[in-house]
């Protein structure tokens, strides 16, 4: 059964794969910021739960070892009781002692083997849990880094588009300015021609009504 964090990672991957590519690009995609933010927020909320689960596994290691020690101690204590009974029941103390010694040795070996096995199992369990959590966090880190790179690229693209639009507007305004200057020069030329034709000094025309001129 997949964990919540695995489900969220799968959802993010599915969403990214479903996004449309930007125009004239086969690597950059268009991402809905609100949707990707919500998925990443859910991922951040779920990640601590996975870490806590790993911590619980580490804690269970100590409980497993404690249980193994308790079982080993009980086995040794039971063996001591059996040894005492053997010594008391046998008429020949030497034979009873040898039997008790063999039983003690066997019990000690069994307890040592059992404890070693449980220790290895607990260590393997902790190693697997830590590796699993680290893999998940590495995947999350990769997703966040890709999101940052995408956001940066989108911002830079937007700045370039704004710069292009601004340059075009400036060129258009400059064209309008050139037309206005040209028209004013034409007006001055017409006024000078009229003054020369009428023989009227330029100063006498000040304050008179303007001449209607059609600009084509």
Description:
- The chain is mostly helical.
- The chain has 3 helices and no strands.
- The two termini are 80 Å apart.
- It is rod-shaped, with a radius of gyration of 45 Å.
- Helix 1 (4-18) packs antiparallel against helix 2 and helix 2 (33-89) packs antiparallel against helix 3 (93-198).
- The chain has one domain (4-155).
- Mean pLDDT is 78; it is low at 204-216.
How is the topology of this model organized?
Blueprint: H1 4-18, H2 33-89, H3 93-198
Helix pairs in contact: 1-2, 1-3, 2-3
Number of strands: 0
Q: Helical segment tally? A: 3
Q: What would you call the structural class?
A: mainly alpha
Helix/strand order? HHH
**Shape category:** rod-shaped
**Unreliable runs, pLDDT <50, ≥5 residues?**
204-216
Helical amount: over 70%
